[in-house]
């Protein structure tokens, strides 16, 4: 922060849902989205800033608090009145009568009312974009507060990719809310250049509002750890076997099928190798069934979901880590958190050559790149790294060096502070 580099800010942090954010802040298993927001929040607190957290508790109640341990619904004024409740119920009955989905109008006015007083004295509002929520954007606009959006992904597009599209009036409402939030924002933080291009080309966001922040990693937590390596290997019933690791939530775009099929080929030349899959998700049962169908029952370990604080130990136990993505019919928009964590842990990484990954991984230097969805290429890369200890260790050491130099949370937070100060001062953000 230029002239105000030592200024401690009062920051409102908005997230799409309270329950998973609360879990993440209390070190319970949580999606990467909320792990990122926890890391950011804890980092800002450690740097002396004051935070007020805001999120929906239910459709009708909202948290606006500086205490994530205990929370009660924020007090509302006019939206808690009998006439507002009556109008809300009447409109909902009419909507149901005509088959109209719940469109979040009344809910967002409740959110606006709940947050208006609680955020009146903050310096800046930072919100992780969530579908259907416009309450904080409305507050920022009413109070003329600087407003920053963290845009991890176009969730409408993601649902299309997952074959779960929202349609009709609900889609129009989601698009309306996203356009409102993006218009209200003084700055939109994207995680990739692909996300930035989508905001410009699809949502017509002015380029001068946009900055790109790849994800970051706690390099002091994710690091080589011989003791943890031995402990987790013992827990998993492993000794000196080569261990390949995947960490993730088995989303549609996590190409675990290609990884399993490639691993089947690896076992032909390296029968003692083991594949450890850490995480959960709706596609996990299907992946477990595929592993069984391929005859991999004894060589693949599904751990289920684990606390994020335990993930570094699993990484320490591995020799090779994989970031598999399938071919996509559109530009890959994600910034895989697992990639930066693998690198920081000093692992030899094999990743699909797609999206931001090709900007982070230099093939043969700090990792290996393979074509998306290519079973043979994945198997060949795995076999080479299992066989070549020197190459594996060299890639891991260079990956660790890249993470420390380019993707630490400390450098991320310092840049975020400069962004906050710029929007408070109504200054340009693009070159920060």
Strand content: 5-15%
Per DSSP E runs of 2 or more residues, the count of β-strands stands at: 13
Helix content estimate: 40-55%
**Based on helices, strands and strand pairing, what is the structural class?**
alpha/beta
Mean pLDDT, to the nearest integer, reads: 94
Order of helices and strands: EHHEEHHEHEHHEHEHEHEHEHEHEHEHHH
Gross geometry: globular
User: Could you give the distance between the termini?
Assistant: 10 Å
Strand order of the largest sheet: 3-2-1-4-5-6-7
Under CATH, the topology of the largest domain is which? Rossmann fold
Short description:
The protein is α/β, with parallel strands linked by helices and 432 residues long. It has helices spanning 18-25, 32-46, 82-97, 105-118, 135-143, 155-161, 168-184, 193-201, 226-235, 256-269, 284-293, 311-316, 337-344, 357-360, 375-387, 389-406, 409-424; strands spanning 10-14, 50-56, 62-65, 124-128, 147-151, 187-190, 210-212, 243-247, 274-278, 300-304, 320-323, 348-352, 368-370.
Tell me about this structure.
The chain has 17 helices and 13 strands. The relative contact order is 0.12. The strands form two sheets. Strands 3-2-1-4-5-6-7 form a seven-stranded mixed sheet, sandwiched between helices. The protein is of the alpha/beta class. It folds into two domains: 10-216 and 408-424, Glycogen Phosphorylase B (Rossmann fold, 3-Layer(aba) Sandwich); 226-406, Glycogen Phosphorylase B (Rossmann fold, 3-Layer(aba) Sandwich), CATH 3.40.50.2000. Helix 4 packs across helix 5 (135-143) and helix 13 crosses helix 16 (389-406).
